[in-house]
Design brief:
The complex is a heterodimer of chains A (346) and B (393).
Chain A: E1 16-31, E2 36-52, E3 56-60, H1 67-74, E4 82-89, E5 92-95, H2 101-104, E6 111-114, H3 128-138, H4 144-158, H5 174-186, E7 192-196, H6 204-221, E8 224-228, H7 232-238, E9 241-246, E10 249-255, H8 256-261, H9 266-273, H10 314-318, E11 324-327, E12 330-332
Parallel strand pairs in A: 3-8, 3-9, 6-7, 7-8
Antiparallel strand pairs in A: 1-2, 1-4, 4-5, 9-10, 10-12, 11-12
Chain B: H1 14-23, H2 30-37, H3 41-50, H4 53-70, H5 72-75, E1 96-98, E2 104-116, E3 123-146, E4 150-159, H6 177-213, H7 215-230, H8 233-242, H9 250-281, H10 284-291, H11 296-332, H12 344-348, H13 354-359, H14 365-388
Antiparallel strand pairs in B: 1-2, 2-3, 3-4
Helix pairs in contact in B: 3-14, 4-6, 4-14, 6-7, 6-9, 6-11, 7-9, 8-9, 9-11, 10-11, 11-14
The chains are: A alpha/beta (346), B alpha+beta (393).
Chain lengths: 346, 393
């Protein structure tokens, strides 16, 4: 069953930077010497969403739900199996998936990424100057002094000391390394940055610093973020809108406040109930999900969430719920979105 | 951690450097730390390597061995084919500093007279103490070509007179074993490089293809390696070596043997290259390079190759002694280099029977050289391996 198009006409939303439609990434499971394909891991399955210029879309979900894969597919760091990714280059929405790698390569500078692991994301053999300057070099800046000036400027922007220009990654702490990664992502003046769990590997105090830096940069450079994370409080802090994924599918997407207050999918409700509340007087009613996360190589029939859903009815076991707009700009994939009265957080 | 007590930077642990960084180290040690922070990976490896005493010994001894082998014409008093009649199977000459009367004097040797023991038919060499021959340094001897180029008859050591100076004794044809060992080390030591270079090319190429393309290519190459590694080495070498035509000259045989050794040697290297490539390909910095628009070839050259080079160098260092042993075994069995070529393996053929070992143990000396060379390479490889990953303590 094909999902309904979630995206209205372009004329209505001139501020669109990115439109993703029916994106799929299926990893084949191969067996034996001749590598017969015996099945697929549906890491990302039929996902549609959009990003407006200057906003932050938080992408949350449990480990293994496909959020990182989705982030990488959007930048074609991994080639998607199916679907379209439209990105606004020079004012025009262009389907990125239709481009050949050689055609896409010069356009890549507009879409950058910040990685989760501040250790493996920096080449240990290169100095800060080389790491941050490399995207410039690759994209045709040849003058050494020009690269050096730009790198110094970027280091200043992200809060690194310019005198550490010649240092190697091993000389920096995790938070500082993450700043180097951010400087690298900024070096090509991108419009979109995919932050792939950009603060998950950091201490809480450092997390806050990096989050504030990301927000400052967003304002200064008119950046749009796709913010992949699993920490709801972080996502709430930084996102304009939030979308929730469950085994490769998006189950809900909406404005942060509206969604946190009034979730439209039982899975979102369960996630929200797990957010720790700092007020000791408040009564907690935590929803503990039964069972295991569904296997993306062997999805249950109907709604993939039904085996763990407290509200599941017969229809949930048989029919895959549609991805539909429940309220204006609030999408959900649940048969009973409109009927259920789900509890959020204030 | 507010105070840092160590007086010297611990180069081994990143963690402590990190702590110092976060703790804000006192100003006086700033330049020292900065040197450590701006050190490239190559420098870190070198600093770590320097701390490995055994590896330094290894590299020093190997440097000496290779140096001497290159200048064998200078260090060896005689040529490889120069024979001394009446000195067949003679024992090592004793260099003396005391005369019969007990006076000390500059080094000298006696000539030997050969007699046959009537009861056992064994040769007996006795010192002829009538004439003392002076041992001289930087003397003149047989004409040779140093480094195949410079004609010279200058010798490091020699004897004034017509008796031979046999430092390691003589072989069954009365040739000086010391000179022959030095000359032989040239073939034996450099076959290591030749063989390993070929394995390196084959291993990197096939391992690279395997890791890069993956899929069926990977499967085929890996199964090939499985088969190759499952064949016992010596019979395989023997089969391959037996295919070398007997009438080939020394140079041709040399290269053929190199090839034989490489055919077996590349498999292990290919495995390493493949594994390393697979691991590196998944690193985030490689994905980052792709995302900001780098071409595949650029990524391989700029990120992948430099990152597994150190592992390759370590593997190669440990592979050279295997090749040296391979050549020695083949030549010992008579399937490798053939006389008149001289290598350690060829020399050891003289020590193939029990009589030789029992009565003329000095003919085993080339074997000691093999042991030393192989050991030193192992020490060196150990040091390199420990240093190759400077971020692990």
């Amino acid at each position: 069953m094909k999902t309904k198009k979630a995206i209205p006409d372009e004329g209505l939303r001139g501020d669109r930077l990115l439109e993703v439609e029916n994106l799929r990434k299926w990893f084949p499971i191969e067996k034996g010497f001749i590598r017969r394909v015996v099945g697929h891991v549906r890491a990302v399955d039929d996902v549609s969403f959009y990003l407006n210029r200057g906003e932050t879309l938080g992408l949350v979900g449990e480990s293994g739900c496909g959020k990182t894969t989705l982030g990488r597919c959007v930048l074609r760091g991994i080639e998607p199996t199916e679907g379209t990714i439209k990105f606004r280059f020079n004012g025009e929405l262009t389907d990125v998936t239709a481009l050949k790698e050689s055609e896409f390569r010069p356009k890549r500078r507009d879409m950058q990424m910040i990685f989760q692991d501040p250790f493996s994301s920096l080449d240990p053999r290169m100095s800060v100057l080389d790491i941050v300057g490399e995207p410039l070099k690759v994209n045709g800046v040849t003058s050494r002094s020009e690269i050096e000036d730009r790198v110094k400027h970027l280091m200043d922007i992200v809060g690194l000391e310019v005198k550490h220009l010649k240092r190697f990654p091993h000389a920096f702490s995790g938070g500082q390394r993450q700043r180097i990664g951010i400087a690298r992502a900024l070096s090509t003046n991108p419009k979109l940055i995919v932050c792939d769990e950009a603060v998950s590997a950091l201490d809480v105090s450092v997390q806050a610093q990096i989050l504030n830096l990301l927000q400052d940069l967003q304002e200064e450079f008119d950046l749009t973020y796709l913010f992949v994370a699993h920490d709801l409080s972080v996502v709430e802090h930084i996102s304009t809108r939030v979308s929730v994924m469950y085994v490769g599918k998006m189950v809900e997407m909406g404005a942060t406040e509206a969604m946190f207050k009034n979730p439209r999918h039982p899975y979102t409700e369960a996630l929200l109930s797990a957010v720790p509340n700092p007020d000791p007087g408040r009564k907690m009613s935590r929803i503990v999900l039964r069972g295991e996360v569904a296997n993306p190589a062997n999805l249950p029939s109907g709604c993939p969430f039904h085996p763990r859903c407290a509200y599941a009815k017969d229809i949930c076991r048989e029919v895959v719920p549609e991805w539909r707009e429940v309220d204006p700009d609030h999408f959900a994939a649940c048969h009973f979105s409109s009927e259920l009265d789900l509890v959020g957080i204030e | 951690m507010a105070t840092v007590k160590e007086s010297k930077i611990d180069e081994g642990t990143l963690a402590s450097a990190d702590e110092k960084l976060l703790a804000g180290v006192d100003e006086s040690r700033e330049p020292e730390l900065e040197k450590w922070f701006t050190a490239s990976q190559g420098q870190l490896i070198w600093w770590r390597f320097k701390k490995h005493k055994m590896a330094l010994i290894g590299i020093a001894v190997l440097a000496l061995l290779y140096f001497v082998s290159m200048f064998a014409e200078f260090f060896g008093p005689y040529g490889t084919t120069q024979r001394f009649a009446a000195y067949e199977n003679a024992p090592p000459t004793r260099i003396r500093f005391r005369t019969e009367e007990g006076r000390f004097r500059s080094p000298f040797i006696y000539g030997l007279t050969r007699t046959v023991d009537r009861a056992t038919f064994r040769q007996v060499f006795t010192d002829d103490t009538s004439v003392m021959y002076d041992v001289k340094f930087f003397t003149r001897g047989e004409q040779g070509k140093i480094l195949w180029l410079i004609p010279s008859n200058l010798k490091f050591i020699g004897v004034d007179g017509d008796v031979p100076l046999l430092i390691f004794g003589a072989d069954r044809l009365g040739r000086d074993l010391f000179s022959r060992t030095l000359h032989g080390s040239r073939l034996s030591l450099f076959i290591g490089f030749g063989g390993v270079f070929l394995s390196f090319v084959l291993g990197t190429l096939l391992g690279g293809l395997s890791g890069y393309f993956g899929g069926v290519v990977d499967d085929v190459i890996q199964r090939m390696i499985d088969v190759l590694l499952s064949i016992p080495t010596i019979p395989l070498w023997m089969a391959l070596a037996a295919a070398i035509p007997r009438h080939w000259g020394v140079t041709q045989t040399y290269f053929a043997i190199t090839l034989v050794l490489a055919v077996v040697g590349w498999a292990g290297l290919a495995r390493i290259v493949r594994g390393k490539l697979l691991a590196l390909r998944e690193e985030d910095f490689v994905l980052a390079a792709r995302i900001f628009g780098s071409r595949q070839l650029y990524i391989i050259r700029r990120h992948l190759l430099p990152n597994f080079m150190s592992y390759l160098i370590v593997h190669i260092t440990l592979a050279i002694p295997a090749t040296i042993l391979g050549e020695t075994s083949l030549s010992f069995l008579g399937l490798g280099l053939q006389p008149p070529a001289v290598s350690w393996g060829v020399l050891l053929r003289d020590a193939q029977n029990i009589t030789a070992i029992a009565q003329r143990p000095w003919q085993l000396i080339p074997g000691a050289f093999v042991v030393i060379a192989v050991l030193m390479f192992s020490f060196l490889g150990d040091g390199l391996r420990d240093a190759a990953d400077p971020y692990k303590s």
